[in-house]
Amino acid sequence: MKRISTSTKSVDKFGAGKHGFTNGNAVAGIPATDLEDSWFDHVQEEICAVIEAGGLALDGTNRAQLLAVLRSSFGSFSGYSNIPASRALTAADIGQALWLGGAGIVLTLPTPASLGVQVGKAVTVFGNAYTGSIAAGAGANINYTSNNDGAITIASGQTATFVAVTGSTWQVVHSTAAMEKNADFAGLIGVNGWRRQPGGKITQEGSGVTDANGKLTITFPTSFINSGVSYKIVAMHSGAGAAIVIEISTSRSLSGTVLQAFSFSGAPLGAGNTIEWIATGY
Predict the structure, then answer these.
(1) What's the average model confidence in pLDDT over 187-199?
(2) Number of other residues whose CB lies within 10 A of the CB of residue 212
(3) Which candidate, 129, 135, 141, 125, places its Cα nearest to that of 176?
(4) pTM for this structure?
(5) What is the pLDDT of residues 6-38, one digit of tens each?
(6) In the predicted structure, residue 202 carries a pLDDT above the cut 70
(7) Fewer Cβ close by (within 10 Å): the C or N end of the chain?
(8) Distance from CA of residue 254 to its chain's centroid?
(9) CA distance 59 to 36
(10) What is the three-class DSSP state of 85?
(11) Check: CATH 2.60.40.3940 for 183-281?
(12) How distant, in Å, are the alpha carbons of 31, 47, 160 from that of 40?
């Protein structure tokens, strides 16, 4: 960009070296500013460059394209649209907040390159009253925590923002959807599993069969990490007959403990008794 530099410019109009335009004054003998093609070329290309960098094709019938790009670039959505049926997203959707307008809607994200979308551009989808999903189109990747997580489910009340990071990849950011992928909720699903809560608390659960002495040695699926805070464990006998299960507290460590099953009369049970347990702590 440059300021007007013709010989009839208004010198220092906006400060030292900041020349401007004048309509002239015939009585005072001041000529109007002569215009030059290079200055208008500068203005045109500066504005067009911003619009095109924002992913829009120039449209001579639309006088709000620069505004739309600036809103999108400075954190405001370029628009808000209700999506009533499954479809592939288009370039016009990028920068918008999209609302799933029905149950089971699947929105397909093509590659950023195929949409003409530059790196850094984003689209936000929210569920409001419905649950739907965002799926990767042909050749596209959707990454949450790993390479190509595939479809992301967005339940009622959840949102997710998808940012173009390469010509083929969208990265999920600012998401309340698929929180099981978030490290704050890391865990393991299985017979013996665990789940971490955002505050750091860990809940673990599992089951096992007693040995000949009625004992079950537990190795936690993941170790508790804070030796200064005790975890709590609850266990029960699962199967025919009644039994009492206790923890042998002297055996406890951050990585496991030992449980023992007794009959109501106080006699240790033998082998083959199933014990189910839940432990929670830090």
Answers:
(1) 80
(2) 10
(3) 125
(4) 0.56
(5) 999 999 999 999 999 999 999 999 999 998 898
(6) yes
(7) N
(8) 33
(9) 25
(10) coil
(11) yes
(12) 20, 11, 42
